Amino acid sequence: GLIRGVMACMAQESWLQPNKFDCNNGERLGISFLAGKDFIGQPSLADAQVADFKLHEISAVSDLLDSIKADPGEGLKYRVKAEGTYLFSLQSNSILHEFTADAFNMMLKDYELDAVRNLRQKSNVVNAPARVNQRLFEKLIIQVGDKRDETYKKVVGWPVEIVPDRNPMSLKVGDQVRLKILFDGKPIFGVRAKVW
Question: In sequence order, what are the residues at sequence separation of 6 or more whose Cβ sits closer than 8 angstroms to the Cβ of residue 185?
């Protein structure tokens, strides 16, 4: 299961893409850092853009930052060493994006960010280009073997975080899962979320 961290104001999505979500113990897992639309993407993050990259297991956390390859197309290769549920967490450094006025206004419309659109209208800057400073917070859940545990619901301590109430790797088509959205570690209600 893939849980994508909340990104403010971006024209494309980004995600951690494994070569498989279900692995056997001892297998080599590949994870790519992709960006695109509707889960069709290209390599997106180089090692210098990643601030933090960790593997969370039920009773351990490993820092994988030094394992990321400098080439965005390389991502990460990791040999899984034990059965269980694995949670990979990635936080990027700040990434500055610049938009033309038309592109930014279209993105605001597409993402239904009406409050920002209204603020631009009130401030009389609808025709001005925009700059967005973005940080990515992304999670990836992988199952290794048949041993399932509660690693999937670990809170990693980001400013914005999504936590499922059930192990996404145990879900079948038609099952429902509740997602808790945390802001500074506390549940937040009434926020708009996009689900793919």
Answer: 155, 157
Beta bridge partners of 143: 22, 85
Specify the amino acid at residue 20: K
The bridge status of strand 60-63 relative to strand 95-99 is unpaired
If one counts every other C-beta atom within 10 angstroms of the C-beta of residue 136, the result is: 25
Which pTM does this prediction carry? Answer: 0.83
- The DSSP-derived string for 140-187 is EEEEESS---SGGG-----SEEEEESS-GGG--TT----EEEEETTEE
Please tell me the predicted confidence (pLDDT) of residue 70. Answer: 61
pLDDT digits (tens, 9 = 90+) for 60-112: 999 998 887 666 566 788 889 899 999 999 998 888 889 999 999 998 998 88
Q: What is the DSSP string of 35-94?
A: EEETTEEEE---GGGEEEEEEEETTEEEE-GGGS-SSTTT-EEEE--SSEEEEEEEEEPP
pLDDT at 4: 37
Beta-bridge partner residues of 96: 133
Range 27-44 average pLDDT: 83
Confidence band, pLDDT 50/70/90 cuts, at residue 13: confident
